[in-house]
Specification:
Elements (H helix, E strand, L loop, with lengths): L35 E12 L2 E12 L3 E5 L6 H7 L10 E9 L2 E2 L7 H7 E4 L10 H11 L6 H11 L3 H4 L12 H13 L5 E5 L7 H14 L4 E5 L3 H7 L2 E6 L8 E7 H6 L4 H7 L5
Parallel strand pairs: 3-8, 3-9, 6-7, 7-8
Antiparallel strand pairs: 1-2, 1-4, 4-5, 9-10
């Protein structure tokens, strides 16, 4: 398997009990008892000369689900893509500030962005299986990464972790494009899991799915959070309230103004007792 990038240390998640979400004293740091997987410090994102995100500072707790919510155009997906350097694939994109993974700078010169994307996987809004068999979709990443173990076992394990094995075990050589939308999305999650990431980023992973398939994805996220750090962008506030441990609310003043982080905290605080009126207005449907 390819070597880890120079400046990224192996994960050292400390064993901490779940926090009693929502009971923190006023002004206490809700992240104080958490192991931190990702962190942004004064993050600013530009597309060309246009400032898209301004001064984003937040922490992402390890083995928790963090939801990013906010109106369209506030930069939710842009922030998500900063966590695994996907924005670099967009012409003219640049960042200032810091993005840290286990305390190490993801944007340091000697960090390999390809390796970053293995360790911080991504699941997109629309299921995007390769036009290959179910088996080859899951095996694709390990193969190109030089995996030397038992590939059959890895494919099965990944499909089981994605709650898909029982549905596809008798048709692994069939085209992945024959699967339903919900199955395709779970296959994409299995494909991400196969390269052993520590973090899984999900950009509106259920927005194209029916309610039943959406619930399966939500159940899967909560199961995976026992072993993985998950960051999800969603327009569905009910979904964020159901699945997240922490929630970040971004907004923009419109007219090309950059997105800013308004409030971040335990989801029970954000959805029942937000400290900023703009958060209250958004979650109650007064704007956005």
């Amino acid at each position: 398997m390819a070597q880890a990038p120079v400046n990224i240390k192996p994960p050292k998640f400390q064993e901490t009990p779940p926090m009693p979400l929502g009971d923190d004293p006023e002004n206490a740091d809700p992240m104080a008892k958490e192991a931190i997987a990702l962190e942004t410090k004064s993050l600013r994102v530009f597309y060309g000369s246009h400032l898209t995100l301004d001064s984003i500072s937040m922490k992402v707790a390890a083995r928790r689900i963090t939801a990013i919510i906010g109106p369209s155009g506030c930069g939710k997906s842009t922030l998500l893509r900063c966590f695994n350097r996907m924005n670099e694939l967009l012409q003219g994109a640049s960042i200032k500030g810091e993005v840290l993974f286990m305390g190490e700078d993801l944007y340091a010169r000697d960090v390999d962005p390809t390796e970053v994307r293995y360790r911080i996987g991504m699941v997109f809004q629309k299921p995007n299986p390769f036009p290959k068999s179910i088996y080859d979709n899951v095996a694709f990443g390990p193969r190109i990464n030089g995996y030397k173990g038992n590939l059959d076992e890895l494919v099965e394990k990944s499909l089981r972790r994605a709650a898909l094995w029982e549905e596809v075990k008798d048709r692994l050589k069939k085209s992945a494009l024959e699967l339903s939308g919900g199955q395709q999305q779970r296959l994409c999650i299995a494909r991400a899991l196969a390269v052993a990431p520590e973090v899984i980023l999900m950009d509106e992973p259920a927005s194209a799915l029916d309610p039943l398939a959406t619930l399966k994805i939500e159940d899967l996220m909560q199961e995976l959070a026992k072993d993985y750090t998950i960051v999800i962008v969603t327009h569905n506030m009910q979904q964020a309230a159901r699945v997240s441990d922490y929630t970040a609310f971004l907004t923009t003043e419109g007219g090309g103004a950059p997105g800013k982080l308004v409030e971040f905290g335990p989801k029970d605080v954000i959805f029942t007792n937000p400290r900023d009126q703009r958060t209250q207005d958004y979650i109650t449907g007064r704007f956005g």
